Amino acid sequence: MDWMTNEDLLIIIVNSGCITLLVVMAIVLGAATRMKSGGGVAVLIVATTVPVYIYNLSRSVEFYGVAEIAVYPACFMNVLLLPVLWLFVRGQLDKTFKFTAGYWWHFIPACISLLAMLSYYLPMSREEFIEDMLEQANGVENFVALVNDFIVLFQLVFYFILIFRFLRRIKQALQDNYSDSDYLTIGWLPRTVTLFGILFVIVFVTYLISPRTDVWLIPILNVIAMSYLTYNYIVYPVAGYICRLDSSVSEVKRASKTLWQTVDLDIGQMKLNCARVIDILNSTHIYRNPDLSLDMLSRETGIGKGAISRSINGYLQKNFFELINEMRVREAKRMLLLLKSNNYTIDSIYRECGFHSRSTFFLAFKKVEGTSPARWLNEKEKY
């Protein structure tokens, strides 16, 4: 293989390794989720770039017969990734979400890209196709490649604005209405989306600097992002958390918006409401209920949900979620100081304080105190 350069060898090793890893991740993800609760869509996300790397690999080893076939699914799946990512995020955070005919328009750009590729490459002879491949390897873009780049660039801006606006609204709605600290475990979802955003930006920047880097650097970064998605989706299933809520996210979003629009309180009334809320929380220890919601607190205090939400946000400068979990952490600190004398254990403490699991207790504690319970206790015992 005298024709092979060191760069060709690097491309072959990287792309073949990435194909293997992505296929393994897709199989593991499918087996772990049984293709339920969005597991099938997660598998599709992981598998979308496999045709791209098959195309890169076949082009590098001069298997142009394979490249002629792989170029079509590679192009289609490359443009399909961001719409599927959006639908995945939407489906994970809204248990009422169903894929209907109204969502098919998200796949129109991928179909346009595929039709452009078919109209461009099908009339070509093998020799013309090989010549086109060699030109692309040297950084000369053909018309359909430029169209594909434009579509992906537009999608990059459009879908990331769409996804992050949705995530921001979801976060506000959940934290205004629920105290479940398991919410902290789904923080990986926006971080995963951010990783994909960084990945796409690097794709364009590196391609502008050196066209050949996209066939070895990007696969490595993509596998890192997909590994992060696969691990967190299996360990911290978002759908499982959302299904425990007594309302759908879309209902919570609408209710939360209504609360803020219809309630108008002065600072004195907000202060009185907050005093009533905190008094009830301290006297009844209702914050120890891991499923405590704004609706439950409203019934306990006799104050409307809108008034409570407005008062906590306006007077205490925090949301319902933050208030309740700060009180849980305060109780946990009290119990940690009595750990030895009262034969408490970490497991008994997090349950008694209102946390669903040990992991969410540690996350909530670190968010409030900036350190783990063990380190906090060690610092206290020094004095």
From TrEMBL:
Keywords: DNA-binding, Membrane, Transcription, Transcription regulation, Transmembrane, Transmembrane helix. It comes from the Bacteria. The keyword Transcription regulation applies. SUPFAM superfamilies: Homeodomain-like. The chain crosses the membrane at residues 12-32, 39-57, 69-89, 101-123, 143-167, 188-209, 215-234. Residues 275-379 form the HTH araC/xylS-type domain. SMART domains: HTH_ARAC. Pfam families: HTH_18 (PF12833). PANTHER family: ARAC-FAMILY TRANSCRIPTIONAL REGULATOR, HTH-TYPE TRANSCRIPTIONAL REGULATOR EXSA. This is Helix-turn-helix transcriptional regulator. It comes from Butyricimonas hominis.
